Amino acid sequence: MLDELLQIMDKLLSETGCPWDREQTHESLRENMLEESYEAIEAINTRDMTSLKEELGDVLLQVVFHAKIAEKSDNFTMEDIIENLCNKLISRHTHIFGEDKATDAADALRIWESNKMKNRTPVSAIESIPKALPALVRAAKVLKHSPEKPPSQEALVDDIKAALEALSSSDTFNFEIFGNILLQMVNLSAFLGVNAEFSLTNAIEGFINTNIQKTP
């Protein structure tokens, strides 16, 4: 079926294919990739397997679309993408394809992260984090790789309290202090083992259910 999908895309991008498809670029398709990914996440959140099947197909379409655009420019092919992915899966799962041992999911994740960080420094790991990520997700990833760690959860809470006091005592709104509070809140979420992005999403839904839906 993958071969059939690739053939369909070849037809759509050919001289006798779809005029709209032929005009697309990696840049013009950025929003599509983002939207399709979020729609797939929405289907997961609502546990709608019928929608998830469809949305994953839409995500796959974006991957194939980009692959075929790249192929037309002699950059890379779908086969290159798959080969790179296979190599990554093997190199990261050394507890399956190598000598490492994992007795549980935590061990497996630790080994994956260790293999991922090979030949990387904390600085290079941070620099490789995409700037296009949602701010909360990017903050969590940056803080995870930062060599500077707060000494304790209590110290981090104290820093947040001090920043809030500084913000409330300021005559004018201080964007820098406010941004630092948000960053430290993400840092706190790591100490608590809470996903900041999911936590905020749940809070938003709770706000909607409590306030918006009750509005006559």
Question: Can you offer a commentary on this structure?
Answer:
- The relative contact order is 0.05.
- The chain is globular, with a radius of gyration of 22 Å.
- It is built from twelve helices and no strands.
- The protein is an all-alpha fold.
In brief:
The chain has about 220 residues and is an all-alpha fold. It is about 70% helix and about 0% strand.
Q: What's the helix and strand layout?
A:
Blueprint (H helix, E strand, L loop, with lengths): L1 H11 L6 H5 L6 H16 L3 H24 L5 H15 L1 H4 L7 H12 L5 H6 L7 H11 L7 H17 L5 H18 L3 H17 L4
Helix pairs in contact: 3-4, 9-11, 10-11
Q: SSE order, as H and E?
A: HHHHHHHHHHHH
Based on CA atoms alone, the radius of gyration comes out at 22 Å
Strand content: under 5%
Q: In this structure, how is the largest beta sheet organized?
A: none
- Termini distance? 51 Å
Shape: globular
The count of β-strands is 0
Question: What are the defining features of this structure?
Answer:
216 residues, mainly alpha, 0% strand, globular
